Structure formats: structure tokens, C-alpha cells
Amino acid sequence: MNSSTVISEEQRDALQELMNISMGQAANALARLIEIRVTLSIPKITVTDPAGLEALFSDKEKFYYARQSFMGDLRGEVIAIISHMGCDHLAEVMDYPQPMTENSYNELVLELTNILAGACLQGLVEQLSTRVHLAAPSLFDLNAQHKLSNDQWQHALLLEISFSVETMSFYSSVVVCLDEASIVAVTQKINRLLN
Amino acid sequence: MDQRNLFETVARQLSIGACIVDEQFTLIFCNDFFVDRLKSQSPPCVGDNLLTLVPEQASFLRRKIQSVFVLKNAAYSYWEQRPHVFDFHSSRPITGEECQMFQNVEIYPIFNDDHNVEYACLLVHDMTVTASYHHELTRLTQTLAAEKEQQRLLIKKLEDAQNQLLQSEKMAAIGQLAAGVAHEINNPIGFIFSNLQSLEDYLDRMQKTIELLNKLVDKTAQNTLMELRTDFFKRHKIDFVLSDSTDLLQESLEGANRVMAIVKSLKEFSHVDSVDWQEANIVDGIESTLRIINNELKYKADVTRDYADHLPMLYCQAMQLNQVFMNLLLNAAQAMTERGEIHIKVYSADNALIVEIKDTGHGIAQEHLDRIFEPFFTTKPVGQGTGLGLSLSYSIITRHKGHIEVESEIGKGTLFRIRLPLLTSDDVHTMTPP
To answer: Quick one: how far is CA B88 from the chain centroid?
Structure first.
């Protein structure tokens, strides 16, 4: 799998720039809602195949996993990886009724997924002047599902952004996965911006 | 109908709940679904504050709606985590088991031209049927799991019973084998022993004869004769032969004695009438068991005994009790990390016989003490031992209406105490044996 045939170095750099800008907006939006300092990482852009994607979901002991689909000019799924650590603290700050039950943790994970995915996607979409529509998020357990096979797709573009709250040892990662057709759409948009 | 009316009619008649609020939670629109189902005294109308319609979930809804305005993104709530956001009547008031509707709620931002969120639109989906199926499925799964567990326990019980039976049969077979072998060996060893005794006597006479002949030769004082004699004696090492013969015979007699004792022990151990109850001497049983496992014990421990005088006979299944003693003694020997002691004490008290077998082995851990009589419980590595010895011993003692208890300390040793009440034939046979 040759990643440079999917997206060139120049395009990747451009995409990186766009993401850096939009992440700043995401951080502001978050801070307004949950009134906590959230640290965002620099977005990481990779091209992967199904095996590579599966490798992201290996640690069920330490992380919750959820996914949220989006459609529109771009199609794909956002996958949220949320650490167990720090959720208690976050729940308190977000006014979740105590004590937390399994249901409330699930609710928290879904809400965080929705917020973080929305934030990431919105930024990207604004920069690229596209429209997408997010569906409802759902919890995700790879072992319970069928394995991702190579029949449905070959490459996906992953945009990975980490959100952490150091004071709570909370760590999460949002991976925006674009399907093959959307990769083409994105690269076309970027080409237009570069020229 | 003009287009505006058309759209409003459609929205009003949708089969999902739809309502629109502004940033102050004021109700701008709310469709028939909402109105019909909300369990409140007066129907909701435009201008009401939405939060007052849902007092129990007010803070939850407030948070969700606010996040839509701030983040400009949709927000969701799911029946699995929060089944009833709005207090809606159940859609199945007659046949359904639930009293309230299960709901998925979605809250969408509605943007104005400046791309700010002007309104939030709430959609409520009736998820009752899905929820109902899900609960039923969960309930069935749990029932199945419980049944499966019960079956597993039953299978284990059956396996245990089967193994106990096998073990009993094995022991019975070994008993029969031992009896057969003993019987076969008994005759030959019997006549070997008596022949040796005769030989001992003959040897003694030969020795006396040679002594006499020697003296006679010496008396003749004839040198040629004496020299011939001395030479012959030297060449055939007669002096050595005479003394060694005695030793040989002595050892052979001892050997034969030992074999006879082993045969006797085997016979006692494997009382051919094995299942019959009879009056037996417990001490004899212990001693014959010791003889049989002598090889196992002799390198591991010194055995000491303390048998009280005038012990009564015990009405019992002698072979089974011997099995118990063998099991305990072997366990004791195996518990030795270095050469130790096994002390056997038998006394009577309270119309019962008490047998104590005490060792100076490595002891049994406190947490295992409750479990040692469990079938298959063993601390030995896989492949060594069956873990059945003590459980069989326990059931044999129980059959004798007795009691077995254990005291142990790690590093010090273990003591087993068996109490065997003095039974009569009536005690055993008028009730069904356990």
C-alpha cells in the first residue's frame, strides 16, 4: 500500500495546515461548553488499510470506543477512543448525576464522542467549504462485530486528534476516517486551494 | 392548501414527536404527537417553557439543548441509557407491559443566515418495540445461562459419583487380586519354611557329626590321617562352609518368615469377604497395612505406636477401614520434606475407638483445610494422585457412622483423628447405609 499514491506530500501538508487552524476553533468551543482546559494535539494524518485500523481498537481494558457516521459531500466515520481514566472527574464537572452507573458512563462516552467528533469535523468542513451531516453516535466493540475485511475498502484517510485534560489524566483520541471516494474529494478541494 | 400550510400539516402529523425551542427554551412549535402523549394536566402550547413540561429531566434537557446552541452540533439521547426523557404515555396501554414510552431523542440546530443557531429542533422516536424485544432477549439469555449452569453442576455431580464408583471398584479389584496372589504364594512359602526348618535341624546334626569325627581323628594321633583331614578341610573351606551355612539358613528362615507375614497382611488387608461387616481388631488392621506399605514408609519416616491396652473389637468393614489407614499413612509419608515421624495412637473413649495419625510433614494450609475431603481436590501437580483418597476415606468413615477431623500447621505437621463408634449389627443394618 503506497500512501503517497492516495495523498501526496504537498496535499498532506496543506491538509495539516487546515486542520491546525480548525482545531483552534474546536478547542474554544469545547472550553465554552465544559469549562475545562482541554489540550489538543496537532492532528496526525495517515493513510491506512483495514488491518491498520483494527490495531487502534486493541485496548478494551483502558479505553471506551464509539463511532459516529457522517454523510454529505464527504462520507466516513469518526471513531472516538476515550480513556476510562478521568471519566469520573469529567462526569462530575459536566453535571452528571452521581453515583455513576454503567449506563451513565455509556451516556458520557456517547456525549463526549458527539461533542469531540462534531468539533473536529466542523473545523475541517468549514475550511474545505463542504457540508456534512453527522448521525447519532453509538458504542463500538470490535470483537463483537465482524472483523474489518479488505473486501469493503482498501484505504482510509485517518485524521487523528488527541484531546487531553491533564489535571484529570483524561485522554481521548478522535479519528476521522474518510472513505476512498471522499479522499478523492478532499484532495481535489485541496488542489483547488493550492492553486 | 398552500405550501406553508402543507408543510405545517405534515410536521404536525408526523409519527415522531417534534418540537422547536429557542435559546430560552420557549416552545415555538410542537406537533400532535407531543400533545397527545404528554402526561400533563394542560396540553403544551406555544410560548410555554419546555423545561417546565419535563420537571424530572429539566437539567438534562437544558444541558443538551445548550450544547446544541454553543457547539452548533446535534445532540442525542438513547433509550438504553435514558429510557424516558419526556413523560409520555405508553403507546401500548392495553397489551404492553411498560407504562411509559421508551425514547430516542435527537436535538438539531436550526441555523439563521449568519450561521448562528437560532432554534433547536427536538425529535422524539418511539423505541418501545425495540426496547421490549431487547429486554425479552436479555431475559431469555439470562434464563438460558442459568439453566446451563445448573446442568454443568449436575454433570459435575454425576462425574464425581461415577469416579467414586470407579475408584471403589478398583480398590475392590485390587483387594481380590491381593487375596488371590496371597493364596497362591501361601502354599509354596509354607513348605519352603518348613523345609528350611528341617534343614536347620539336619545342618545342626551334620555339624555335630563333623565335630565328633574331627575329635576322633585327632585322638588317633595318626599324622597321615590328620594331614589328609586338614588338607581336605582346607581345600573345601569346610570351616567357612560350616559357619556360613548357619548364617545362610538363618537368613533364609527370616526371609521366609517375612514373606509369610506379608502374605498374612495381604490376606487381612483384602478380607475376601470384603463388603461384609464383622468384628475386627483395628490394631491388627493398622499393623498389616503398615507392613504392606513398609517400602513406602521406611525411607521417609519413623513410625511410632501408642496402642491402649484392652481395646475392644470393632464391628466394621475391615477392608475399607484398612483402605482409610493406608490412605492417611501414605499421605503422611508424602508430606515429608525430610525424614520425619509418623505417630499412631489408638484408644477408646465414649463408647468409640479413636485412631490418631500424626505426622511431622509440611502441613496443610488453612485455606485448604475446608476442602481436603472434596473429591478431586489436590495440591499435587497434575498427573500425580487422583485427589480422591481423602474423599473416599471420608465416605467410608461416614458409613461407619464415624467422624474424621484434621488439625494442621504449615511447617509443623498434620494430625488426623478418626472416631469410630462401637456399633452393633442392628445399628448398621436396620437403617439404609449412607
So the answer is: 55
Contacts with A106 from chain B: Cβ below 8 Å: 80-81
Residues B108 and B16 in one domain: yes
Number of domains, chain A: 1
Testing the interface with A: which of B76, B107, B108 to mutate, by most A Cβ within 10 A? B76
Measured distance CA(B235)–CA(A140) in Å, rounded:
102
Where does a domain end: B126, B159, B175?
Answer: B126
Note the pLDDT tens digit of each residue in A125-153.
877 888 888 889 999 876 655 566 666 77
Which of the residue ranges B80-84, B372-376, B380-384 would you say has the lowest mean pLDDT? B380-384
B222-255 pLDDT, tens digit each: 999 999 999 999 999 999 998 899 999 999 998 8
Between CA B116 and CA B412 the distance in angstroms is: 82
Residue of B nearest to A106 (CA): B81
For residue B178 the three cell numbers come to 491381593
* Cβ contact, residue pair A29, B71, below 8 Å: yes
ipTM of the complex: 0.76
pLDDT, tens digit (0-9, with 9 covering 90-100), for B19-73: 999 999 999 988 888 888 877 767 777 888 888 888 888 888 988 998 888 888 8
Last residue of a domain, one of B219, B246, B270: B270
Per the domain annotation, does B333 fall within a domain?
A: yes
Contact at 8 Å (CB) between A45 and A173? Answer: no
Interchain proximity A107–B81, CB inside 8 Å: yes
Are B109 and B231 within one domain?
no
Number of residues in chain B: 434
Find the domain containing B44 and state its range: 3-126
Expressed as residue numbers, the domain containing A138 is: 3-194
CB contact under 8 A, A103 and B80: yes
Residues of B with CB under 8 A from a CB of A: 59, 63, 66-67, 70-78, 80-82, 104, 106
- Is there a contact between A103 and B72 if contact means CB atoms under 8 Å apart? no
Q: Which three cell numbers stand for residue B212?
A: 565328633
Amino acid at B162: Q
